[in-house]
Write a structure and sequence with these properties.
The chain is mainly alpha-helical. The chain is built from 8 helices and no strands.
Length: 180
Amino acid sequence: MQVKRMLLITLAIGLLAGLLPPAAMAAPTASSPSQDDECTHPMALILSEWMEDVSCQDLMDLHDEGVGFGVITKAYFLSEMFGLNWRNLVDRHLSEEGLGWGQIMKAHALAYALGVSADDLLAQRAEDKGWGEILQEYRTGPGKPPWAGQGKPPWAGQGKPPWAQSHGKPEWAGPPEPEE
């Protein structure tokens, strides 16, 4: 019995002595690159291929900070659409301002159409002005027509339009004929 025990202890010590050096060599150290540096997330890989100037690792770093891939995708789409910096859009979306993508997109589309700065429009929006009020300031969009308050509208007094000239129902209109 003692011989078996001695044999097992010797085998265990030999096994440990044989496995510990390779295990210690395989353990990551501060100077050796870890396997986590490789980008293996499928969405990050797809986005990094689509966003040619952005590395997969940059996307993973943003994702680790809590930025979702959907936010990154929308920001990049809008940056391509309006010629903006996508990182600034992400920061603006996630800031205390908390602008939604619709507000950001509307501000940039209107700024392009009106020839003004989107930041100016967003600043007016932050002052609790509605988009209609902002557009009225630039004399565009909803509001009074140009002839309002100047008497009759241009079409007044010209009679009925041609499509309203007939009187009554058309000849073919009426109750259905009884079946016999």
